[in-house]
Design brief:
heterodimer, A: mainly alpha, B: mainly beta, four-stranded antiparallel beta sheet, elongated
Chain lengths: 151, 199
């Protein structure tokens, strides 16, 4: 099983395992998000992403999740007893990003615009709210990544 | 993608004339929306398939109960994601045989539509990487094997003549685990080997 994000190929990640990891924390996470009128990974960010864009976009998104969402939300993770799921997601995101970096040469403008749209929506929210919303939308992220998943 | 909200009547009001009202919400949008034909209803379910037809959105639904002049608070679902949570039905399976092979033609299931007049959307259009798991059972040898198939035709070769084989097929999307729903088991017999009649 592998991801084929356009020119970038990542082997050895079991997407069902990531979805299962999120499924076990989905309810706890999404209940924290009471600003349901805002969606970070909105249609304009993820719809009709070309193969060429996909590598850059998934790289930017996963890197953001690692450096901002997971990093700043770890205090809540322990509180909610979600460490196993959290580490499965974080370790696999880290692995994917490391593999993507090897095959990326230069910036892709349209992918970057999509990422900036996601990031600007995130920044408009209060930090704690934005963190729990982003974590609660991991199913949207994984489902989109599933479109590039091959057995 | 047939999405029906179900609920249980209030424990304390079993048998009483209770009515219910349902609303739904699209995650990322602004307000709760009414479902016209689920307002003041006495049944305990509401088909929200049309309202949740855009499978890439995520949804909430809520219901409240009314009895005489009393009204309960809203009870809300979790966030529902049709694209990830829907159960994909089995494909249509057509079998044709000759002496030593069975040809299988698969047709992807269609997306559920409330109104038959609506245009038909194949689940293949929604899940471009939809695949099939074909299971084959040899009645004589009692041997079963299965094969993962991407396209819609498969020929099972090197079979035994004049033997009954049963076939069952499941649709699945790589990476997005969900409960499988196999097709009806279909059994066909391979033809007699004409050369064996001459011996």
């Amino acid at each position: 099983q592998e991801f084929q994000f356009g020119p970038c190929r990542v082997e050895g990640v079991a997407l069902p395992r990531l979805l299962e990891a999120f499924r076990t924390v989905k309810e706890t996470m999404q209940i924290q998000d009471n600003i349901t009128s805002v969606r970070l990974l909105q249609r304009e960010v993820l719809q009709d992403v070309s193969d060429a864009e996909s590598c850059y976009l998934v790289h930017d998104l996963l890197k953001f999740y690692l450096s901002t969402v997971f990093k700043n939300y770890s205090h809540k993770i322990a509180e909610f007893k979600m460490l196993p799921s959290f580490s499965t997601l974080a370790n696999n995101f880290l692995f994917i990003v490391s593999k993507l970096q090897l095959s990326m040469s230069r910036l892709n403008d349209s992918a970057h615009r999509r990422f900036l749209l996601f990031k600007s929506t995130f920044k408009q929210l209060e930090m704690e709210t934005a963190l729990s919303k982003a974590f609660g939308e991991v199913d949207i992220l994984l489902t989109w990544m599933g479109k590039f998943y091959r057995l | 993608m047939k999405n029906v909200l179900h609920w249980n009547p209030p424990e304390s009001l079993r048998g009483a004339e209770v009515t219910y009202t349902v609303q739904y919400f699209i995650y990322g949008q602004k307000k709760w929306l009414n479902k016209a034909d689920c307002k003041n209803i006495s049944r305990t379910y509401c088909d929200l398939s049309d309202e949740t037809a855009d499978y890439e959105h995520q949804y909430y639904a809520k219901v409240k109960a009314m009895w005489k002049t009393n009204c309960s608070k809203w009870i809300e679902t979790g966030r529902f994601y049709p694209f990830l949570e829907t159960r994909i039905g089995p494909p249509e399976v057509a079998l044709t045989t000759d002496e030593k092979s069975i040809s299988i033609v698969l047709t992807a299931p269609d997306k559920w539509k409330t109104n038959p007049e609506d245009c038909t959307i194949s689940m293949q259009q929604i899940y471009s990487n939809l695949k099939y798991n074909v299971s084959v059972y040899n009645i004589k040898s009692k041997r079963t094997w299965s094969q993962c198939v991407t396209n819609h035709t498969l020929v099972l070769s090197w079979l035994e003549p004049n033997t009954l084989y049963c076939v069952q097929v499941e649709s699945f999307v790589p990476g997005l685990p969900r409960p499988a729903q196999p097709s009806q088991k279909q059994c066909v017999r391979t033809l007699e080997d004409p050369t064996s009649a001459l011996k």
